[in-house]
Amino acid sequence: MFSATKALALAACAQGALGALFITSPVASTTWAAGQQQTLSWQDDGQAPNLQAFGPALVTVAIGNAIQQTSLQTVVSSVDVSTTSSIVFTPDQTMGGNSNDYFIRIQSLGLKDATQPQYPALAFSAKFTLSGMTGQFNSTVQQQIDGTATAPIGGGAAAPTSSPAATSPSSTPAKSSTSGSPTASAGAQGASKDVKESGAFGLVASGAAALASTVFAAAILL
Q: pLDDT at residue 76 above 50?
């Protein structure tokens, strides 16, 4: 079990959303085997702001609901999404249990949300499944998962659509690929273990507009 959590609440207003980055893998039907290399990929969704404006970004694996979320693993601390379109990384088996509630969160390190400029621009994948997991969710994370029934992420005006076909342009070849840091994949250092941040399930969202509140939490595994 997780022995400790550190939390920092971030208030946000769930109004509207702008496009930028559409995550093409994982999707809702995806099942990734933890402990094995997987490929996360994205493309421009054809809406403003474009990927060049989105720029360098923090990429994490997260879990939670529209009110509270927790990042469980840092995939990469900074990647320019306009020059890179995929990342190969290894999901950490110990960050939680087998579940179909995981999602990817991509946070711009420079671009701010158009309607709430005090918050960064964000993009989210659909929820997907991780199998072969050996960890357990602590009570705080489990409560966030249970809260998806009453606070689904990406609902209402916060998400432009729940249909990949409606928001995704024709797929394009990857511009380039980068491998996630082995340290980040194992969640063993710095932000990988101590910084937990997220938001999700809406296919594409912009900044804190997709969230009613975002919780950054650290979960330290005994």
A: yes
